[in-house]
Amino acid sequence: MPKTMYRHIPKALFVVLVLITALFTLLPFLFMLSSSFKGEEAIRTIPIRWIPERPTLEGYIRVFNMPGFSFPRASFNSLFLAVATTLVQVLSACMAAFVFAKLPFRGYGKVFGLYLATMMIPGTVTMVPNYIILRLLGLLDTYTGLILPALANAFGVFLMRQAMMTVSDSYLESAMLDGASLYRSFFVILLPMVSPTLFTLILLAFMGSWNSYLWPLIVLTSTDRQTLQVVLGNMNSMYRNNEHVLMAGAVLTILPILIVYLLSKRRVDSGIALGGLK
Amino acid sequence: MYLPNARTRRAATAVFLAPSLIGVVVFCLVPIGMSMFYSFHDYDLLAGTMDFLGLRNFSRILSGREFPQVLLHTLTYLGLYLPLILLTSLGQALILNKSFPGRGALRAVFYTPVITSWVAAAVVWTWVLSGRYGLMNQALAAIGITGPAWLNSRAWAMPGIVMTALWKDTGYYALMVLAALKSIDPALYEAASIDGAGGVRRFVSITLPLLSPTLFLLVVINVIYGLQVFESVLIMTDGGPGGATTVFLERIYKYAFRQYKMGMASAYSWILFAIILVFTLIQFRAQKKWVNYDA
Lengths: 278, 295
Prior knowledge:
The structure holds 2 protein chains of 2 kinds. By secondary structure, chain A is an all-alpha fold.
């Protein structure tokens, strides 16, 4: 083999590798999309017809007309809960982080250590008692009950505290010398200065809430309060043999978060570099 | 930070810390105590009865016939998932570390499964893995392999779940590996090349050792998450077929929220916690053997 050809082999191999991994990632999505525009018979073909012969919106129409569940309602619930949870989670974390970064009090190291320790307790252990606490407080099947545990967010506190440590005290001190209150300088001076980390935390919180399944499944029992993920999970057992309906539901569940991701892609990437969460 | 007024300072500290601290106490610290308490009791939430059992929840679980199965299935998941996720995320990161046209788009493609919810991923993959018409078996048929009825097969259900998890998680861990790859000093590779080291040699002697802290982190994280595999199992197989994919969290969920045996569920979750703890400690012990913190 001539030497120049030999040199091309690793490159060709690389291209093949890229194609295989890209296809493995993409094909399930395309399979989903293609199936969602087919009828009940058309989804069961060998070989797969990637472009439906007679494209139909039947799957989507059935998703919107499910007996017992309202998909639009569930979408609204998910959106509302994601926004509210994000707000509660991010705001409380930023406020606590401010104390740990800028207002040390006696014994704050121990409290902060306690926060870090809670990060090691798996959610599994606290899930059952949290359910019982909500039951005692009469908050089962309420949005308040679903959202409240988001206050316990040691990771967010840690992330924001690390960012706030890099901001010099003098910015805040001079703002207050100029007559700004502590609260005002927190919101107007400090938060904008840590906005990259803040934005990362907001995205992680939003995506986490939008995609969460187990907690809403346990807490929300009324069908009109359920979230998109729970409804899709329920559909999975109801529509076992109507995959086109399921795939339409999956498309509609993925699409909003995909749009959010694509709009904020750069920041998501940098967030991962910060050592982010799923 | 300096504040002239001590009272303002105290008030601000209290106001700012309160929401988060109350949250941590009420939804994290108190629950830990409650969970321990319940694990020593027979607590039926529906009947509202609570009887002290001592350690009998634990002995009942550990000596029962179910536990070895649950442990086996969970460890099977972990045993398949862990080495493969290391390989796939390393592979993806190595791809993304090269510069070529379309890299940004490929990065977005790789990350899309990560932002997909577990429910949607599980629903899609249930269809991908369906016996006759699913994507997987049609792809296998194209290269002359007759695929199994994945999720309906006792032997292949767990590998099917693992495959789904690899599809969903690789993009996430790849970005962590990629960040570590980018931090490797290119001068090291140049020096090695001058000394005559080939591509494989450079990978084994430079890349892998310098990646080892990140790989260690991936192992630790994935053991912790892997032992808590749940959503995929619940939606794709619900522990089936015939109990072939029962795992810890699925059991805990069902004891707690299908049977309302809160004591049993709590004991189970502490057993899981102990297992996670042991695994994690072992890894921190073993890291001296393979993790390189020099450079």
